[in-house]
Each structure stands twice: as structure tokens, then as C-alpha cells.
Amino acid sequence: MANHLTAEQVDHFREVFSVFDQDGSGSIDADELGACLRALGQNLTDDEIKDLITSVDQNNSGTIDFDEFLALIVSKSEAINCEEELLAAFQEFDLAKKGKLSKDQFYYVFCGMAETCDAQDIDYMLKLFGALDENDEVAYPIVVNKLLEI
């Protein structure tokens, strides 16, 4: 995972890791991660913190070592890049720059990115996400956020 990062980035994240590792054990447990995330304004539940740890905890220790921490950083930065790319695709068609597309425009962009495209499935998704307004316009930032939560 670290091969996606420069040496300077790895050094920076090593410093960040040492701040998170409050007891100096060489790993970050749920309490340490929760405290640091709260200090950064991220109020995750205990279950969300445990899920975050589990997502990168390769040795099932219940904690995150430095390599696992780097894997978490890389995965989060990839998700951010994905969000930016999705938003950019929709924004190309959003000439009014209001964060909305007509339903037809949304279908066109979404079907161009999706492996399969079924109008009924898209309609269901838009309804489920609450992204379609009374004017049949799709608030695409809502769709992007919900898709990235999945």
C-alpha cells in the first residue's frame, strides 16, 4: 500500500500515527482512534470505529499497526478521488452549476459510467436516495455521496 505514497508522505503519516498511538505501543486501538477522530471533528460511533479498524486489520489483532494505518489512508484517499471523478462527470452536464441535472441528463451520464443500465433500477435508486425533486431534477451530489457509502 505504501507504494502509492511518496517517502515524504510516509514520513508525515508516521508522525500522524505516533500522535494517534497515545500509549506508544506501536498500534492504535479503538479508544485511541476514537479520541483522535473526535479531536478532528469526526464523531463516529463505537461500532463505526470498530468497522474502520476491522476493514484494515489484516492480523485480526483488533488494533491498527503502521502498515494497516497506511492502508487505511490510501483507501480513504482513493475514495476521495472516486468522489471527485464522479462529481466531475456530472458537473460537465450541469451548465447552470446548481448541483442538479434533468432526469434524462442523469440517465445519460450514469449509464455511460455503469456496467449495466436499467431505468427502473435507476428510478428506484433515486427514490431510495431522495435525490429526485418535484421538478424531476436529480441532485447528483446526493447520489454520489450515497453510492460511496455503500
Automatic annotation (TrEMBL):
InterPro entries: CALM/Myosin/TropC-like, EF-hand-dom_pair, EF_Hand_1_Ca_BS, EF_hand_dom. Residues 8-43, 44-79, 81-116 form the EF-hand domain. One of its GO terms (molecular function) is calcium ion binding. It comes from the Eukaryota. The keyword Repeat applies. The keyword Calcium applies. One of its GO terms (cellular component) is myosin II complex. Keywords: Calcium, Repeat. Pfam families: EF-hand_7 (PF13499). This is EF-hand domain-containing protein. It comes from Guillardia theta (strain CCMP2712).
